[in-house]
Amino acid sequence: MPKGYERGKTPKQPNHMVDWLNCIRTRSTPKCSFDEAFIETATFLMSLTAQQEQRMVRWDAVREEIV
Fold first, then answer.
1. Residues 6+ apart with CB under 8 A from 32
2. Is 21 within a domain?
3. Are 59 and 46 in contact (CB under 8 A)?
């Protein structure tokens, strides 16, 4: 566990699925924008790829892919 983590004492995290469904119902904007979600997903996938391939990876902005 990360340093300082205490089970049951961490701030409540947003439920993105509930937020998304509410936005569909109300036609409002989600708390997490498409751009933020893309950046977070790309960051996660880069770390996963780096670990699996045991090498440093980079983001190619022109081709929009992990290299």
1. 14, 16, 19, 40
2. no
3. yes
CA distance 1 to 50: 22
pTM of the model: 0.60
> Could you tell me the two tokens for 5?
């983590």
H helices present in 1-67, as ranges: 16-26, 34-53
- Tell me which residue of 45, 47, 65, 63 sits closest to 55, measured CA to CA: 47
Write out the residue range of the structural domain in which residue 57 sits: 32-67
> What pLDDT shows up at residue 32?
83
Q: Which residues of the chain have pLDDT under 70?
A: 1-2, 10
Distance, CA of 13 to CA of 31 (rounded, Å): 12
Count of structural domains, the chain = 1
What is the structure's pLDDT at 51? 94
